[in-house]
Amino acid sequence: MVTSPSTLIEEGVADFKELWDHLGSLPSYQRLEQGTQTPMLRRFSHEKPGGEANILFRPIGQIALAQALGILVFKKKRLLADIFDKLRTYDLGGGFASVSEPKSLWYGVLYDPNKKRVLTSRRDLAAKLMVYLVAGTSDDMERGNLLKDLAKARTIEDRAIGFDGNFVEPKEVGLPKVL
Questions:
Q1: Which of 101, 109, 123, 169 counts the most CB atoms within 10 A of its CB?
Q2: Could you tell me whether strands 111-112 and 117-118 are parallel, antiparallel, or unpaired per DSSP bridges?
Q3: If residue 112 lies in a helix (H) or strand (E), which one and from where to where?
């Protein structure tokens, strides 16, 4: 049986609505409904007035998330509901915030600590890290490459910045726990 174009469009719209409903369930986005202004969520801590530096309010963070969702749903065969259950927990713990601080996974990945601005060149790494957070990996090579790329992103000259803000050897930078 051939599916009509109008049926395909209706299915696409339904899928898109489901995605937006899940995105709207993230605590960071719910704060908008509670009256928090976008600039407060978006600004870096070093800006005046300081903000939360949440990657979900930066286009590059949104693109990386969309890319990761595509991989998780279509390649890893994960359900959106399961993905967003994990992302809500991560968001509640501040995982998408404080990108301008070394404690953030996204420091050096989506934030350039030298120039104090958003870094767009590592969007693919950010997406891979999001996939790793949600789904993990059993492939040692994939995990090793991800770890190497994360350490490189957090390295200035020959020293990496650890999650505690101290300089460490690049091999000492670790991956976060899978959600």
A1: 109
A2: antiparallel
A3: strand 111-112
By three-state DSSP, how is residue 81 classified?
A: helix
CA–CA dist 104, 97 (Å, integer): 7
Cβ–Cβ < 8 Å for 51, 40: yes
Distances in Å between the alpha carbon of 121 and those of 60, 109, 124, 127, 135? 9, 8, 8, 12, 23
The 10s digit of each residue's pLDDT in 32-82 is 999 999 999 999 988 888 899 999 999 999 999 999 999 999 999 999 999
For the chain, what are the domain ranges?
5-172
d(CA 28, CA 17): 19
Place of tokens 């986005």: 29
pLDDT at 121 over 80: yes
Token pair 């767009």: residue = 120
Residue in the structure block whose two tokens are 């009256």 = 35
Compute how many other C-beta atoms are within 10 angstroms of the C-beta atom of residue 149. Answer: 16
pLDDT digits (tens, 9 = 90+) for 12-27: 888 889 889 999 999 9
